[in-house]
Design goal:
It is a single chain. The protein is α/β, with parallel strands linked by helices. Helix content is 24%, strand content 27%. It contains nine helices and 27 strands. The strands form seven sheets. It has an eight-stranded parallel β-barrel, surrounded by five helices. Strands 16-20-21-27-23-24 form a six-stranded antiparallel beta sheet, with helices on one face. Strands 17-1-22-26-25 form a five-stranded mixed beta sheet, with no helix packed on it. A hairpin with a 5-residue loop joins strand 20 and strand 21. The protein is globular and about 65 Å long. Bound molecules: alpha-L-arabinofuranose. Alpha-L-arabinofuranose binds next to loops.
Length: 491
């Protein structure tokens, strides 16, 4: 029997809404032919930005958007992307397909997108091939209110008022595509850049240093030791790759074993967050510095016949379970995980939506973000879990992943994932410190493990009403179908 105790009266830590963040890189069809269709497009748009995408992302309360990369960020020179579009310099996007980037989507277009989405921008600056001055100028260009060469240039380009930009990344993957640095070197580079990224009287930056690749604990240790006081956030990147990096496996054609391997690898996020957080605790016991998981999600082989450099993959119920268990883990570590950004929003990796000309389809992963949105800014309910483990491949993963929160209005939200591909399970949840009178729920599941939404069948995997939960005194009994994500609202 699987059992969870929810200590509702002990809830205190806020789950930052920024844990539900997103990432849009100049990669494949994420920006161009994704968000950006241009003002001449027959696809309904606002100043070149697709309206249906904006509506869909507003519906999940998108809190922030990271841009312009990824690896692209350390090749990106922001001045190429401001001023009259027809006069902008072009470049080759060396990381992603070798395509020509004409810079028609630049700083002003990105900030317009964030305003349409009503979300906060998270800008990632260029350390790998840039300079301190270039990044410092970009911050001033976006945020300076007093007259100076950068704010004057911004005004000349049509935006007299400064924008508000809080989140600023100092490079991306400086251990890899962002410069192949050793952490001992980057820690000093970071300190130097951070010195010249200046706050403005009405704009305070939240500076995010490049953090570890997956389980590189040494990286976290050195960064916290040598640069901790100068940062607000330290990143972590972790992708769920079912096979190997050279043969990752298909997004839609997989065996029951591959389902389990994917769950096992996805569940590793729990261990990674726990261990990086433990190191951070040594230097920052007050948990001032956020662990910013600014790239996470599944990475499968590209869809057959598509450009290998565009990272276009389908998205099944399996991806939805990965999203659900990862978000449960981030919620659980709300004291240290202050932001997370799934990679990537449109048409790339574990996307929220896929587009084809004027058509748009929402993925099962999108629906998980919609089902979980009530956790944003709610208070985390501490759980005691007594969950059966599934043995697989010499490892154990829990049959059920869970997290719960309570809103300021007293509404309890419980999100559960049954990771088993074939067995239903029953769960009892003891509610402490609250008198529950009603429960309503929704479930995301499908008959097949690889069920997914297509342009011709866009509603194959969508949330449905759930009648498998009942209240018995102070206990909630939940009968979960196999391979399902369930959200319950208790009042
Ligand atoms: O998200 C795709 C790529 O994965 C990013 O550009 C890079 O930061 C990471 O390696």
């Amino acid at each position: 029997m699987n059992r969870i105790v929810l200590n509702v009266d002990a809830a205190s830590t806020r789950i930052s809404r920024h844990v539900y963040g997103h990432f849009a890189e100049h990669l494949g069809r994420c920006i161009y032919d994704g968000f950006w269709v241009g003002t001449d497009s027959p696809i309904p748009n606002t100043r070149g930005i697709r309206n249906d995408l904006v509506d869909a992302l507003r519906a999940i309360d998108i809190p922030n958007l990271r841009w312009p990369g990824g690896c692209f960020a350390d090749d990106y020179h922001w001045r190429d992307g401001v001023g009259p579009q027809a006069q902008r310099a072009s470049m080759v996007n060396a990381h992603w397909g070798g395509v020509t980037e004409d810079n028609s989507f630049g700083t002003h277009e990105f900030m317009d997108l964030c305003e349409l989405l009503a979300c906060e921008p998270y800008v990632c600056g260029n350390v790998g091939s840039g300079t301190v001055r270039e990044m410092s100028d970009w911050v001033q260009y976006m945020t300076a209110s007093a007259s100076c060469p950068m704010s004057d240039l911004r005004a000349a380009n049509g935006r007299p008022d400064p924008w508000k930009v809080r989140y600023w990344g100092v490079g991306n993957e400086t251990w890899g595509c962002g410069g192949n640095m050793r952490v001992e070197y980057y820690a000093d580079v970071y300190r130097r850049y951070a010195t010249y990224l200046r706050n403005q009287p009405d704009n305070r930056l939240y500076r995010i240093a490049v953090g570890a690749n997956s389980d590189d604990y040494h990286w976290t240790d050195v960064m916290m030791r040598d640069a901790g006081p100068m940062m607000d956030g330290l990143s972590l990147h972790y992708y769920t790759v079912t096979g190997s990096w050279s043969k990752k496996g298909s997004a839609t054609e997989f065996s029951a074993d591959e389902w389990m391997t994917c769950m096992r690898k996805a569940y590793r996020i729990e261990e990674l967050v726990t261990r990086h957080a433990t190191i951070m605790d040594r230097y920052d016991p007050d948990k001032r510095v956020g662990l910013i998981v600014d790239e996470w999600g599944t990475w499968h082989d590209v869809e057959p016949g598509t450009n290998p450099g565009f990272l276009y993959q389908q998205n099944t119920l399996r991806d939805a379970l990965v999203a659900g268990l990862s978000l449960n883990s981030f919620n659980t570590h709300a004291d240290r995980v202050h932001m997370a950004n799934i990679a990537q929003t449109i048409n790339v990796l574990q996307a929220m939506a896929l587009t084809s000309a004027e058509r748009l389809v929402l993925t099962p992963t999108y629906h998980v973000f919609e089902m979980y949105k009530g956790h944003q800014n709610a208070s985390l309910i501490p759980l005691v879990l007594d969950i059966e483990q599934i043995e697989f491949d010499g490892a154990q993963i829990p049959r059920v992943s869970a997290s719960a929160s309570v809103s300021d209005a007293g509404r309890v939200l419980v999100t559960l994932c049954n990771l088993d591909p074939s067995a239903p399970t029953t769960l009892t949840c003891e509610l402490r410190g609250v008198r529950a009178t009603s429960v309503t729920g929704r479930v995301l599941t499908a008959p097949e493990t690889n069920a997914h939404n297509t342009f011709d069948d866009p509603d194959r995997v969508t949330p449905q009403p759930f009648d498998g939960a009942e209240i018995d005194g102070a206990t909630l009994i939940v009968r979960m179908p196999a391979k399902s994500v369930v959200v319950l609202q208790v009042e």
